[in-house]
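User: Just a sanity check before I run the rest of the batch. Below are the structure tokens for the first item. I only need the designed sequence back.
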């Protein structure tokens, strides 16, 4: 078990959280990884921090963009440059627990699967625990339409088993659209019940504005997936119920 994992990390003005994010990768018990950090034209001290870490550990590979393109295109830039058999995602304000990579690779090998995700904790800006997202054992395309429970920071993919891993150019919910594309291809994703990551829910995170998040999900139904109106409403009702339940 020594395949390379390419970690995809978009970064925009994340100076406040970047140390903790990168440290959580350095502390992984699985050591064969590369961390591609794509700075999306930050105006704070993020670039200097990324450069500092890359000089200390050559597994950290910085990519600097000359204009702000958004998280989806930043991630695609990193995916294009990824050399690993596996691809994992970690945003610059989130954290992995030390066993994350090891647990997921062992699971993928044992179960011969191409797409895994896991349970994770949610914390506030001041690092107070808010709630835990517990995931199902499997999820299909149709089930995911009703329950967008896959946390991007927990996803690992076997790159060799997909035709093309690329995020649609959407400013938000591009990860949801990506998982739907991949679920059409692989049939289902496998959930690991163990908590393997920590998501930081702060004012600039995608989930902080619940009304905007709901609108973005609706937009994926109608614009990306081209679902008809009735089927979109049907799925959206379940989405809203599940979004409420998972935060209890």
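Assistant: Here's the designed sequence for the first item:
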């Amino acid at each position: 078990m020594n395949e390379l994992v390419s970690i995809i990390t978009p970064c925009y003005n994340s100076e406040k959280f970047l140390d903790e994010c990168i440290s959580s990768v350095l502390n992984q018990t699985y050591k064969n990884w590369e961390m591609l950090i794509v700075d999306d034209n930050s105006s704070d001290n993020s670039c200097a921090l990324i450069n500092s870490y890359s000089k200390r550990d050559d597994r950290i590979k910085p990519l600097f963009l000359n204009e702000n393109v958004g998280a989806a295109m930043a991630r695609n830039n990193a995916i294009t440059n990824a050399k690993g058999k596996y691809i994992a995602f970690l945003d610059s304000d989130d954290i992995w627990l030390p066993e994350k990579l090891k647990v997921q690779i062992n699971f993928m090998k044992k179960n011969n699967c191409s797409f895994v995700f896991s349970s994770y904790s949610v914390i506030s800006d001041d690092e107070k625990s808010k709630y835990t997202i517990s995931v199902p054992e499997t999820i299909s395309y149709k089930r995911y339409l009703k329950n967008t429970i896959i946390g991007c920071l927990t996803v690992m993919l076997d790159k060799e088993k997909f035709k093309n891993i690329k995020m649609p150019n959407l400013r938000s919910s591009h990860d949801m659209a990506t998982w739907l594309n991949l679920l059409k291809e692989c049939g289902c994703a496998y959930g690991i019940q163990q908590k393997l990551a920590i998501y930081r829910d702060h004012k600039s995170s995608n989930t902080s504005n619940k009304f905007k998040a709901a609108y973005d999900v609706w937009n994926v139904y109608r614009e990306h997936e081209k679902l008809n109106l009735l089927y979109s409403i049907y799925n959206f009702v379940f989405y809203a119920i599940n979004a409420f339940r998972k935060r209890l």
